[in-house]
Design goal:
The chain contains 13 helices and five strands. The protein has one domain. A three-stranded mixed β-sheet has the order 1-2-3. The protein has a two-stranded parallel ribbon with strand order 4-5. Helix 7 crosses helix 10. The protein has 251 residues and is mostly helical.
Length: 251
């Protein structure tokens, strides 16, 4: 019912380091509801595909077919029978997270500066915690268009998008890209308001939101923090549902 996502496999592996029982419970549940025939495209490829489609390319599948060997490997990992690979999986997840943190640092710094400038103008330094949606709203127009174009450029579609005459608003109307930018802005804002640095969970949240939105799928989650991030995205294109709601829909 749900395509396999490498992001989920990585997170379950990471959880197992601190709470093996919880990780095993998550893995058993995921094995029951996930399809091991198909897997979601990695985040970068998924974003590139939705941008290409907006530029007129023929829509393609948002999934890849898993080979029998890959299916077996995934099942062993999720069932906890491939523990010898656990350290490698977690190490790769941490490496990917750090790369993501480095690549987004410039925009996070811009978000922090904008929030601090706004708080200073209102005589409220340090910035006071507030409802995330309200905090994101004034930062969105300052950050979202540039961040969206940066992703378009990173996927090597900048020249084509400019030639097609896409405006800032039109780029941000690409659902998968809007969701990805939205969660990035929301994360930058919440990190600033809470005085913390990015962590691996932030990277996982970004992956889940971007992959689901690019594939046109609802996001199945009971994570309240993740729900707040999605709720803070202006005109969010992504629906977040509970497991119970997912099961009702497939009956």
């Amino acid at each position: 019912m749900i395509p396999f996502a490498e992001a989920v496999g990585q997170e379950i592996a990471a959880v197992s380091l601190s709470d093996r029982t919880k990780a095993e419970q998550l893995a058993r549940f995921y094995l029951k509801v996930a399809s091991l025939d198909n897997a979601l495209e990695p985040t970068g490829g998924a974003l590139g595909q939705v941008i290409a489609e907006r530029l007129g390319e023929r829509p393609g599948p948002h999934y890849t077919r898993l080979t029998p060997r890959q299916r077996r490997h995934v099942r062993l990992r999720l069932s906890g029978k491939a523990r010898t690979h656990l350290d490698d999986i977690v190490a790769e997840y941490r490496k990917d997270t750090q790369t993501w943190v480095n690549n987004t640092r410039g925009f996070r710094d811009r978000a922090r500066a904008a929030i601090h400038a706004q708080a200073q103008a209102q005589g409220e330094m340090p910035p006071k915690p507030m409802h995330l949606r309200e905090a994101v709203a004034p930062i969105w127009p300052k950050l979202a268009p540039d961040w969206a174009w940066a992703i378009v450029e990173s996927r090597r579609f900048l020249e084509r998008a400019r030639k097609a005459g896409l405006s800032d608003d039109e780029v941000l109307l690409i659902p998968g890209l809007r969701a990805a930018i939205g969660v990035l802005v929301a994360l930058a804002v919440t990190q600033t308001l809470n005085g913390r640095n990015p962590h691996t969970g932030d990277y996982g949240d970004f992956q889940h939101v971007a992959q689901a939105a690019c594939a046109g799928l609802p996001l199945v989650s009971h994570d309240e923090a993740l729900r707040k991030l999605v709720d803070a995205i202006p005109d969010s294109p992504l629906e977040v549902i509970s497991v119970e709601e997912m099961l009702r829909r497939v009956r």
